[in-house]
Task: inverse folding
């Protein structure tokens, strides 16, 4: 296990105040596409971040080492919700299947009392969009936008409370065609400050959250700027030896309206909440994870459900 570095009480209290202040400001979103902008927030109804990705111990950086993680997921939606949370009367189907490789390296260096790490996230996706009313029937398979962070800091304030902070950037390298309804890339840069927090009691009760605030830049092919997005992946659970059980999901709030050619688009903010069961089994230097998440309280977005499988191996 990782060697835990403890702070003095005064320093810990200052950092806790900072955590509380910053955590009141941060979050982000999920999904991918569709040309019905009147029924969808964000360009094409999507975001750089899927949402609900992280769960158990998301705020606790592991000990120094190399950690490849594979995420596999399937998202399906057959409803579009408008700005009032009502179903849009269209025959709509969206299916997104993906496998994502995340590479995390935790060094033995420290900075500001925190462990230092780096990561890169590379997704390969298949997206299918079918909208009978408009004659749209599109399918695309390929690379999605790559997410990287050159500096991740992880603090272990004590044996129960852990914090991670980073600044992540999405590189617009994914498959994109301005005339395609099923794009895998966003064709714009996104930057997000991220904070993740984990509290685990002596009896194994856990509360974790990963909070992000996505700042989106303009899509140069369409002159469209997706509004900034706040997302929180959350988990409440219990550890039983090698097993972990919990409730997991995401909260998505778009904080600013979209813009087209620098003109503000009213009623373009999205909102969503998802929830479902999560389970994880730890074995030696690896873990296996499975979860299901159901969308609810959705506005200006597709409404559906996600199935996740995750595997991590520690070197």
Result:
């Amino acid at each position: 296990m990782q060697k835990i570095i403890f702070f003095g009480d005064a320093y810990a209290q200052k950092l806790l105040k900072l955590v509380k202040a910053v955590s009141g400001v941060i979050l982000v979103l999920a999904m991918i596409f569709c040309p019905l902008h009147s029924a969808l927030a964000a360009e094409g109804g999507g975001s750089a971040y899927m949402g609900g990705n992280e769960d158990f111990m998301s705020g606790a950086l592991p000990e120094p080492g190399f950690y490849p993680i594979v995420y596999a997921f399937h998202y399906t939606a057959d409803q579009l919700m408008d700005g009032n949370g009502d179903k849009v009367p269209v025959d709509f189907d969206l299916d997104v299947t993906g496998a994502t490789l995340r590479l995390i390296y935790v060094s033995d260096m420290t900075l500001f009392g925190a462990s230092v790490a780096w990561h890169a996230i590379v997704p390969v996706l298949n997206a299918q969009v079918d909208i009978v009313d408009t004659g749209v029937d599109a399918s695309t398979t390929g690379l999605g936008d790559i997410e990287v962070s050159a500096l991740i800091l992880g603090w272990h304030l004590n044996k129960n409370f852990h914090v991670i902070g980073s600044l992540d950037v999405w590189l617009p390298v994914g498959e994109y065609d301005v005339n395609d309804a099923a794009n895998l890339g966003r064709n714009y840069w996104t930057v997000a400050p991220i904070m993740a927090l984990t509290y685990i009691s002596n009896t194994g009760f856990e509360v974790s959250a990963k909070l992000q605030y996505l700042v989106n830049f303009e899509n140069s092919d369409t002159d469209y700027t997706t509004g900034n997005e706040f997302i929180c992946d959350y988990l409440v659970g219990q550890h039983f030896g090698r097993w972990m059980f919990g409730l997991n999901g995401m909260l998505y709030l778009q904080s600013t309206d979209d813009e087209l050619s620098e003109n503000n688009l009213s009623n373009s903010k999205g909102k969503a909440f998802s929830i479902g069961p999560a389970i994880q089994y730890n074995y030696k230097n690896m873990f296996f994870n499975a979860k299901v998440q159901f969308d609810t309280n959705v506005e200006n977005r597709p409404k559906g459900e996600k199935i996740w499988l995750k595997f991590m191996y520690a070197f």
